[in-house]
Amino acid sequence: MISIFYCVRIIHRFVPSFLIFFYFLCLCQVKAQQQPSHIQYDIVIYGGTSAGIAAAIQGSRMGKKVLIINQGTRLGGLTTGGLGQTDIGNKQAIGGIAREFYQRIKRYYAKPEHWCWQDSASYFAAGYRASMGNEDAMWTFEPSVALKVFMQMLEDEKNITTVVNQRLNRGSGVRRTGLAIRSIQMETGHVYSGKMFIDATYEGDLMAASGVRYTIGREPSVQYGESLNGVQANKTSLTLLKTISMNGRYHNFVEGVDPYIKRGDATSGLLPGINPKRPASDGSGDHKIQAYCFRMTLTDHPDNRIPFTKPKDYDERDYELLFRNYEVGMGAIEKMYDYGDPLVPWINSPMPNRKTDTNNQKGFSTDYIGQNYAYPEASYQDRDLIFQRHRRYQQGLMWTLANHTRIPQKVRDVVSRWGMCKDEFQANGGWSGQLYIREARRMVSDYVMTQRNCEKLEVANDAVGLGAYGMDSHHVQRYVDEQGFVKNEGNVEALVPSPFAVSYRSIIPKRGEVTNLFVPICLSASHIAYGSIRMEPVFMILGQSSAIAASVSIEKNMAVQDLDHSELRPLLIKFGQRLE
C-alpha cells in the first residue's frame, strides 16, 4: 500500500500546501459525520441545562459513565444565559448539587480580583439577594461566572463526556426495545446508547420522541380542581391563603389604550400582537403558553457598555401600543407600581460588577406576548425563526425606549444610560443565545403536580425535591376588552404557604410507557403548578434526583417505575437533597 505521506509529497508538487490542508480538514469532518458513535453509556443526558449538569455530576459521583448531549455550544441553559437572580422563595429548600453551585458562586465573589467593574462592598451594602455574611451561598451572579462555575464542577468529575452542537433526530431518532430506550440518533447521524436516559431540555424533545404522553397549554380549572388555571381575564381568584391572583396589576395596560391601527376605527385592523378573538370564559382551558423573552444582562458602566442599536428590520408599528400606553397617562402608570421604576417597563435587578438581570414588567415590556404558541412542537428551523423574531422584537424595544421621540424624556434618560455588556455573550454583541422558555411541553404521568400540591392541600409521599416559589404565570395573550381597549391576559402571581414536595412519579413516565427515562424539566404538572416548580434551582434538584434514581435502577436492573421510594429516599438525603 502506498504511504499517505508519499501521496502528499506527490500532490504537493502540483497543489499549494493550504489546499492540501483544506482537503484533509474537510475529509476529517465528513468522516466524523459519516461514522456514528456507538459507545455505551450508563446515563445519557439530552440537554446541557442546569438540570442536565446536576444530573451528570451526580451520576459521575455514583460511578456511572455519563454523557451530556447539548444542542448548542454553551452549557448551563438559563442559569448561564442571563437569569442571574435566583428565583426560589425559601432558600432553605435548596440542597445537594444545586446548593453546592450557589456556594461556589459565593466563594468566587469572595475574591477581590473578581470585582473589576464595581467595589464588592457597594454591591452588598445595597441589600440584594446576596449576603456575604450569614448565608453559606450567594444567589446573584453574572452569566459568565455561572458558566465558569459549572465548567469547573464538570471538570472535577472523571466520568462525564460532553458533546455539543448535536440535535436529536425527532422523527426517527429514538430506538427502543419494547418499553426501553436503547439509543438515540442525532441529526448528524451520531448514535448514543445508554442504560438510562434523562431529558433535560426545556422543550421535552426526547420525551415526546419517545412516545410519552404530554400536554401543552392551560388545563381548564375544573380538570384538577384549581382556581388559578385556565383563562384568567376577568376575575381575581383566591388561593388557600386568600392571596389575590395579581392578574394584570403589575403587567397590564392603563385604561383607555386604543388597539386599532387607526384610532377608534375597528375597520382599520388591529395593531400587531393582538388576538382578534376575546378570551373564552374564565377557567377555560386552551393550548396557549405563557410568553417568552430574553433575560438581559445590562450595564451602565461606560467602559463596558454597548449602546442599544436599532435592528435592521425595525418596524415602528410593533411598538405603537407602547407609545399609546404612555400617551394615555403617565400618572396612571406611576400609580400602578409600588416597586421598581414606576415608568420604565422592566425589572432591572442588580448583579455584581454593575450588571443586571433585566426582566419583563408592566403592560408592554420584554415579553413577546402571544408569539410563541408554535414553539414547543415546531421544527428546529421554525424554532430558530421564533428565536430570531423574539430577539429582533426585544432589540427594537430597547432601542425604542432609549431613543424614540414618542417615549417620554424621563424614560429615555434612564434607559439610554444602559446597554449590553462587552464582556458577556461576546459572540452575539451582548445578547444571550438562550431564549427564556418558561413553559413548553409538560409530561402527563401517573402523578400530576397541581395547585393542591403547591398549597399543601395534597402532599406527595415520594418527594425527590422541594418547590418553594409562588404560583406564577406570565401573560398568555393580548386582546380587546368589552370597552374596546387593549388588555393582557394570563398573568397569575400567588404565594405558596411553604416549601412543598415534588413527587418522584412526576419526573418519570406513566407505567407502561417508557421504563428508563427521567424528565426533570418538562415534568408532569398542571400549568399553574408548573409555574411554581419551573425555577432553575428546582430543575437542578430534580436533575440530581433523576441521576440518583437512574443509578439505583441500573444497579438493580429494574424499570424506573418499579423503584421503591423507600430505597431512594435514604440516598437522596445522603447526597444532600432536602425533602421536608
Keywords:
alpha+beta; three-stranded antiparallel sheet
Describe the fold and architecture.
- A hairpin with a 2-residue loop joins β4 and β5.
- α4 packs across α6, α4 crosses α15 and α11 crosses α12.
- Helix content is 29%, strand content 16%.
- The protein has 580 residues and is α+β, with helices and mostly antiparallel strands.
- The longest helix has 24 residues.
- The chain has 16 helices and 22 strands.
- Strands 1, 2, 3, 4, 5, 6 and 22 form a 7-stranded mixed β-sheet that branches.
- The N and C termini lie far apart (69 Å).
- The radius of gyration is 25 Å and the shape is globular.
Rg over alpha carbons: 25 Å
Mean pLDDT: 91
* Individual helix count: 16
Largest sheet composition = 7 strands, mixed
* Terminal-residue CA separation: 69 Å
What portion of residues is helical?
A: 25-40%
**Structural class of the secondary structure composition?**
alpha+beta
Shape estimate: globular
Number of strands: 22
pLDDT < 50 runs, ≥5 residues: 1-36, 236-246
Percent of residues in beta strands: 15-25%
